[in-house]
C-alpha cells in the first residue's frame, strides 16, 4: 500500500485530535474530582454511582430522623427535670405546711405558691418542639392541657415514630397520661389542685395525705424519664451506625466515581509529553517537500 503525504497528514491530525480529547478529559477530571461526567464515560460505573447516591440520600434521611429524635428526647429529658423540680418544691412546701407551728394564714400563702407550681406543671405538659406538642400523642397540633381543666383532660394515646432504617421505627413521643397520670385519678395536676385546696381550708389530714400522692407522681415521672433515656441511647446508637454505613458507602462510591489526583496528574503529564512529541514529529513531516526526495 502506497502511503501518500496526504494520508500522513490526515493520520497526524487524527492523532493530535485524540490526544487533545484525552487531555481535555483529564483536565476536567482534575477540575471536578469526578472520573465520570457523563454516562458514556463508564456505563457500568454510572449504574453503581447512581445506586450509591441513592443509598446516601436515603441514609441522610435516616440520619436526619435519628438526630431529630435525639433533639426531641433531649428536650423531653430537660422537661422531666423541670417536672421533678416542681414536685420536689411541692413536697418541701407540704412538709412545711403540715408542721403544727404553721397557722392558717401561713398555709394560705403556701397554697398560692402551690397554685403557681400547678400552672408551671401545665406549661411543662404543653411544651413543644418546633411547634409540635410533645405530650399529646399524634395530635401534635393541639395543646393537651388547660390550666383550669388539666386534672380532667385526656391526651391522645397515639405514638409518634421516626424511621431510622428501612426496617426500624423508634417511638419518640410519650403520651401525657403516662407522664402526668390519667384523668379522673390522682394525676399530678389533681394532686396539686387538692393540695392547694387543703392548704386554703387548713386541712392538716389532707395536707399530709398529699405527700404520698406527690411521691407517686414523682415515681411516675421517674419511670417516664428512664424511658426517655433509653430511647436517647437507641437514637445515639442508630446515628453512629448510620454514620459508619455512610463512610462505607462513600468509600465504595469513591472507588467508582472519584479521581485519584496523583494518578490523574501523572497521566495528564504523560499525555502532554506525547502531544509535544507528536507536534514535533508532525512539524518535520509537514516540512518535507519534493526537493527533499530529489536529494
Distance between the termini: 24 Å
In total, the number of strands is 4
CATH evolutionary superfamily of the largest domain? f41 fragment of flagellin, N-terminal domain
CATH topology descriptor of the largest domain: f41 fragment of flagellin, N-terminal domain
Portion in strands: under 5%
Write down the overall geometry. rod-shaped
Can you describe this structure in just a few lines?
The chain is mainly alpha-helical and 295 residues long. It has helices at residues 5-32, 43-97, 104-125, 176-180, 188-200, 204-257, 261-287, 290-294; strands at 128-129, 132-133, 161-165, 168-171. GO terms for molecular function: structural molecule activity.
Overview of this structure, please?
By secondary structure, the protein is mainly α. The chain has two domains: 1-33 and 260-295; 53-252, f41 fragment of flagellin, N-terminal domain, CATH 1.20.1330. 71% of the residues lie in helices and 4% in strands. It has eight helices and four strands. The protein has helices at residues 5-32, 43-97, 104-125, 176-180, 188-200, 204-257, 261-287, 290-294; strands at residues 128-129, 132-133, 161-165, 168-171. Strands 1-2 form a two-stranded antiparallel sheet. Strands 3-4 form a two-stranded antiparallel ribbon. The model is unreliable at 290-295 (pLDDT under 50). One of its GO terms (biological process) is bacterial-type flagellum-dependent cell motility. Its main location: other. One of its GO terms (cellular component) is bacterial-type flagellum hook. It is found in: Bacterial flagellum. InterPro entries: Flagell_FlgL, Flagellin, Flagellin_C, Flagellin_N.
Amino acid at each position: 500500500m502506497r502511503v501518500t503525504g496526504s494520508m500522513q497528514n490526515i493520520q497526524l491530525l487524527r492523532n493530535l485530535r485524540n490526544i487533545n480529547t484525552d487531555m481535555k478529559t483529564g483536565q476536567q477530571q482534575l477540575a471536578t474530582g469526578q472520573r465520570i461526567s457523563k454516562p458514556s464515560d463508564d456505563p457500568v460505573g454510572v449504574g453503581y454511582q447512581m445506586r450509591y447516591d441513592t443509598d446516601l440520600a436515603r441514609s441522610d434521611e435516616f440520619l436526619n430522623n435519628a438526630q431529630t429524635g435525639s433533639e426531641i428526647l433531649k428536650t423531653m429529658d430537660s422537661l422531666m427535670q423541670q417536672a421533678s423540680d416542681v414536685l420536689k418544691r411541692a413536697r418541701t412546701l407540704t412538709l412545711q405546711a403540715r408542721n403544727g407551728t404553721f397557722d392558717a394564714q401561713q398555709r394560705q400563702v403556701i397554697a398560692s405558691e402551690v397554685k403557681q407550681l400547678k400552672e408551671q406543671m401545665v406549661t411543662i405538659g404543653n411544651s413543644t418542639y418546633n411547634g409540635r406538642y410533645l405530650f399529646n400523642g399524634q395530635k401534635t397540633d393541639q395543646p393537651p392541657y388547660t390550666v383550669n381543666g388539666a386534672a380532667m383532660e385526656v391526651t391522645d394515646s397515639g405514638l409518634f415514630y421516626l424511621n431510622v432504617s428501612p426496617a426500624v421505627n423508634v417511638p419518640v413521643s410519650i403520651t401525657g397520661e403516662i407522664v402526668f397520670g390519667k384523668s379522673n385519678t390522682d394525676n399530678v395536676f389533681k394532686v396539686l389542685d387538692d393540695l392547694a385546696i387543703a392548704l386554703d381550708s387548713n386541712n392538716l389530714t389532707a395536707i399530709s395525705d398529699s405527700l404520698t400522692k406527690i411521691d407517686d407522681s414523682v415515681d411516675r415521672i421517674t419511670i417516664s424519664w428512664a424511658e426517655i433515656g433509653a430511647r436517647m441511647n437507641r437514637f445515639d446508637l442508630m446515628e453512629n451506625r448510620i454514620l459508619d454505613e455512610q463512610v462505607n458507602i462513600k468509600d465504595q462510591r469513591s472507588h467508582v466515581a472519584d479521581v485519584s489526583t496523583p494518578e490523574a496528574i501523572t497521566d495528564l503529564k504523560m499525555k502532554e509529553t506525547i502531544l509535544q512529541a507528536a507536534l514535533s514529529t508532525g512539524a518535520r513531516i509537514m516540512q518535507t517537500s519534493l526537493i527533499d526526495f530529489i536529494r
